[in-house]
Write a structure and sequence with these properties.
The chain has 191 residues and is mostly beta strands. It is built from no helices and 10 strands. It has one domain. An 8-stranded antiparallel β-barrel has the order 2-3-4-5-6-8-9-10.
Length: 191
């Protein structure tokens, strides 16, 4: 089991998987790693300027019957929260990326043309019903100010994120279950 990150103070997106989770969860990363690659902001290094920033709304996906697209719980509140995704691109080859939210590392991944794939660290959520460990994997098509990528009108970031419960002490939320979310937004700067 990964260890708890000491004193990070970072709050990740709190994703309510049960009615008990809403509004009361504390979220901490489990083992955020300082990336050694020179293109990213290293531990103790000066803050780098992101290559692009997008205002992205992450929201629950509903099926054709209006039910949440999840096998985690039978009933859960819908989720919608907007973040500024800051994208940092590897200067040496341009395919490795890091996503940050409010200056804090959220996920790392790869880009190819207009497409990104990324994965977060494992996060620990302390709910009143027990501890949950979860991780997000995402894919997106995105574009900067030059445009040119195949996206729905008005969008500069379009994709999905899958939250997977890695481990759960809450009997109503089984380990291995998934929660599908859309991730859509517009360019704020750069890109």
């Amino acid at each position: 089991m990964p260890h708890r990150a000491a004193g990070s103070g970072h709050r990740a997106p709190v994703l309510p998987l049960s009615k008990a989770a809403a509004g009361s969860a504390v979220v901490r990363p489990l083992g955020m790693v300082c990336l050694a690659a020179s293109f990213l902001v290293g531990c103790g290094a000066e803050e780098a300027v992101p290559d692009g920033v997008w205002k992205v709304t992450v929201a629950s996906v509903l099926d054709d019957d209006g039910r949440l697209s999840t096998d985690c719980v039978s009933e859960a509140p819908t989720y919608s929260e907007t973040f500024e995704y800051e994208l940092y691109v590897d200067d040496s080859g341009g395919s490795t990326v890091e996503l940050k939210i409010a200056g804090e590392s959220f996920a790392t991944g790869q880009r190819q043309g207009c497409n990104l794939s990324y994965q977060s660290a494992v996060w620990l959520e302390d709910q009143s019903t027990g501890l949950l460990q979860w991780q997000i994997a995402g894919t997106a098509t995105y574009q900067g100010s030059a445009g040119g990528c195949d996206l729905s009108d008005g969008l500069d970031w379009q994709g999905e994120e899958v939250l997977t419960v890695v481990e759960s002490e809450d009997e109503s939320v089984p380990s291995g279950c998934t929660y599908l979310m859309s991730a859509e937004g517009t360019l704020v700067s750069g890109g």
